[in-house]
Amino acid sequence: MSNLKKVVLIVIGILLFLVIVTGVLFAAAMHSLFGSTNYETEPPTQAQTETETETEILDIQTSEEGVFYITETANEAKAETEETEEKIPVASDSDVYNILLIGVDERPSTGDTDSGTVMLLSVNDSSRQRSMITLNRDLTVEVPGQGEMPLDQVYGAGGGTLTAETVTENFRVLTERYMVIQFSQLVDIVDELGGIPVSISQEELDPLNENIRAICAQRSESPDPYLLTETGTQTCGGIQAVAYSRIDQGEGDAQAVRQYEIISAVIGSLGDQSITGLYGAVRTVLSGVTHNVPELEILGLLVKVGRLSGYEELQETLPSADLLVTEQTDSGEIFTTDWTEAAREIQTALY
């Protein structure tokens, strides 16, 4: 064998070795990232539990084929089937990845676990579109196995799994994955990102500083370094960002709008990180969320981060205002919608 061939083989061997080592190190780093997360396995839902346990016999019928026992579960299943037949099919596509982002602002003073923000994040590789759809949290939805309740109360009733199933059932968009983030944990996440841009008005300044004082009191910190005196767009740290998200003054669901702004800014800042900065930021983000996204899927999403910046961005609040309807019930006023049109609107936006 000539010396040239030997040199070529040696170079190829070295390159292969480097590729293998790099792959192993990358896989180890990704596994370490996943290990820092709060991964939830899939528990049985309320609807599944009821289907397995409720079998009270209501009637017995006979025919030429034999004896049939009519149970409560069978009647409920029939009723659910009849109702489902009136709904449009659930949209699903291998080129579209949906994940539900649930923002929960649980405060020690109230113990509340309602979700302040319910956002559907979607990536469509076919149309090269990334979408952030904010779902109206006050909308009364049909919850599998539990009847009707406002969307923002579903998380407290059954966690992320039930919330994702409820979104699929009502909005007819396949939503199997979810991430739950506590707004209190955003303090560390925003600080890791180096702050995020927030636009503050004169009307927001006083309640913002009041919230800063409250957060610092819970953390046994002095609020003085965090108090703001100027309005306009400025870079806010974690305590300031969370304080901003808790301002509830304003028209409509003003607090939900502000929470959406903070989450959007966090997601935007992730895309602006360098490779080394992204690893630290993602590690901090993942350690502060509860989710059911498998390790390989997280790896796939991280690999996509670079090219997602070239995708067209869509940000909307759905269902749109003209589809929302106010109804008076025995328990009070509720918000509902034309579910067929609302589902079509969301499917058109994402697919």
TrEMBL record:
<feature type="transmembrane region" description="Helical">
    <location>
        <begin position="7"/>
        <end position="34"/>
    </location>
</feature>
<dbReference type="InterPro" id="IPR004474">
    <property type="entry name" value="LytR_CpsA_psr"/>
</dbReference>
<feature type="domain" description="Cell envelope-related transcriptional attenuator">
    <location>
        <begin position="115"/>
        <end position="268"/>
    </location>
</feature>
<keyword id="KW-0472">Membrane</keyword>
<protein>
    <submittedName>
        <fullName>LCP family protein</fullName>
    </submittedName>
</protein>
<dbReference type="Pfam" id="PF03816">
    <property type="entry name" value="LytR_cpsA_psr"/>
</dbReference>
<comment type="similarity">
    <text>Belongs to the LytR/CpsA/Psr (LCP) family.</text>
</comment>
<dbReference type="InterPro" id="IPR050922">
    <property type="entry name" value="LytR/CpsA/Psr_CW_biosynth"/>
</dbReference>
<keyword id="KW-0812">Transmembrane</keyword>
<keyword id="KW-1133">Transmembrane helix</keyword>
